Amino acid sequence: MSFGRNLSRFRKEKGLTQEELVKQSGVAISQIRRYEADKSSPTLEVSARLAKALGVSIDEMFFDKTTGIAANRLMDRELLEQFEMISALDEGERQAVKKMLEGIIVKHQVEKVMRPKTEKSWSQRFRDITDKLAKGVKDYPQDEIDKVIDEAVTTVRAKGRARA
User: Fold this and answer.
1) Homologous superfamily assigned to 3-66
2) Residue 57's CB: how many other CB atoms inside 10 A?
3) How far apart are CA 151 and CA 59, in angstroms?
4) pLDDT tens digit string along 27-63?
5) Which of 27, 69, 77, 98 is deepest in the core (most CB within 10 A)?
């Protein structure tokens, strides 16, 4: 489920109107409408304010629990043993471990959501730039273009920014 649908669902489950959510979260109504329509994504700070106002965790706002990792069986034996050791700790220590785990998980999930969809490699970006340059120099003689390229490559290599 998307962030917008989750936001709308949690708001309605709490019996809140968009205006009431504005009062509790301090987020502008225009932004709440954009989020619920999946036309915009909130910052981490805004996500935290909305989650707090709705009484849910940030990861619940972004991710459907039924498709989360927790629904799968734990296969890492070492991790399973660590969880068993944690269960023997006193309540305060267990709560501290849970908070640390939640922080790490939320950080990972937010980074995954915020990560650029596709980052072009250096060579692809270079190819794109040279293609644009090639269109702009169509009226220049080839030997002049080759001379400029050779000078640029020599300069870049001299500054240690590229390898032969």
Assistant:
1) lambda repressor-like DNA-binding domains (1.10.260.40)
2) 16
3) 52
4) 999 999 999 998 988 888 898 899 889 988 887 888 7
5) 27
